[in-house]
What we know:
Elements: E1 3-5, H1 15-18, E2 24-26, E3 31-33, H2 49-53, E4 59-61, H3 69-80
Antiparallel strand pairs: 1-4, 2-3
Amino acid sequence: MALKITEVCVNCDVCEPVCPNRAISMGTVVYEIAPDRCTECVGHFDAPQCVEVCPVECILVDPQHTETPERLLAKFHDLTGEEKK
């Protein structure tokens, strides 16, 4: 699953720098998460870092981009070039 940022976002700028995959960028109104780059921090951290730092809890699972934990880990390997174990 990729995550998405809802319209409740206050553009506080704390989520973008903590994303290890550079999946978060400023959209036309609020920050957006690129589903092809979002691994929910699988491979990097135990929990999504953007969710951890968000002060208004506006980052949710995107039901239009559901992925298994295995697929998220495979995406992590594809993005980072790290060998699969």
